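Summary for the steering committee. The consortium agreed at its last meeting that each partner would contribute one worked example illustrating the joint modelling workflow. Our contribution is presented below. We chose a case with several input lines so that the handling of multiple components could be demonstrated. No manual editing was applied between input and output; the record is shown as generated.
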Amino acid sequence: MSSREEVGGSMEPSRDLIGLSSEPLSIERVYSSAVSPSCGAVALFIGTTREHFEGRRVIRLEYEAYEPMVKSELSAVCRDIRSRWPMVKHICIQHRLGLVPVAEASVAIAISSPHRCEAQEAVGYCINALKASAPIWKKFMNLKNRSGRKILNVAGLETAEVAGLE
Amino acid sequence: MSSREEVGGSMEPSRDLIGLSSEPLSIERVYSSAVSPSCGAVALFIGTTREHFEGRRVIRLEYEAYEPMVKSELSAVCRDIRSRWPMVKHICIQHRLGLVPVAEASVAIAISSPHRCEAQEAVGYCINALKASAPIWKKFMNLKNRSGRKILNVAGLETAEVAGLE
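What follows is the complete predicted structure of the assembly.
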């Protein structure tokens, strides 16, 4: 046993897993990819489609992304997390694209660390950083299936464009 | 549609789900029981068995509980959460009892809310309150399968008892 293992570390390499998919997200899989024998904590955040937005009924959201830039932006977020919380072990960030019905997950983040504070703080930071920097567009569909408000989050700026919302 | 629904609320009643089980915890099930169409956020915390504790190798943990008191203590934690974060929708707290091997989950908490801050803050509060108040005992087993340190968390006091740890 190495001295690193003796003080509670682990030789298992840390992982950053970033994915975009048009399939439903498996929360069990996101969780499992962050679990580590060297960690006592996994914190997760899941963003889901709400049935209301600013008092209007939503039937589903649609997400579009500029995929090459999403991956580089989220890799930068992972590096930031590792510099702020060096005890973080694995980071898994999965975002769904395309249509996401009410109550289904659009984004799932799981982060492990030996103790709970680091994992919880890092997940809070991660979802805020993702919303601020990842080029992922969100379009609301209202009850009559018209396009609603389109929101673009990119480079820390949020711009809103109204397009046919009743 | 009621005026409550129109402003983004939901008529679905809030749920507090508290469970103790000797079976492995299903993270997907804990997550699913907290999801709500009225919410855009589910925060989770999962506590897992670490392979090391204070520099010593752990092969598994064993949990024992005084079950009737656990349920009443955790119900009180749920009430506290609802008074601090009234927007919280569902709360699910599941604790495994008996042997929990390395990297498996001993506790899983999922909390939903319309927006992410409340769910994340409430989960952080919940795991701290559970550790401080629930009468759940944790016993470490080291490599030679001897009983290790036994820790009792009850009524905010943590007492440690050394029993055969090498």
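The interface with chain A takes residues 1, 5-10, 26-28, 31, 35-55, 57, 102-103, 112, 114, 116, 119-120, 123-124, 127 of chain B (CB under 8 Å). Chain B has a mean pLDDT of 83.
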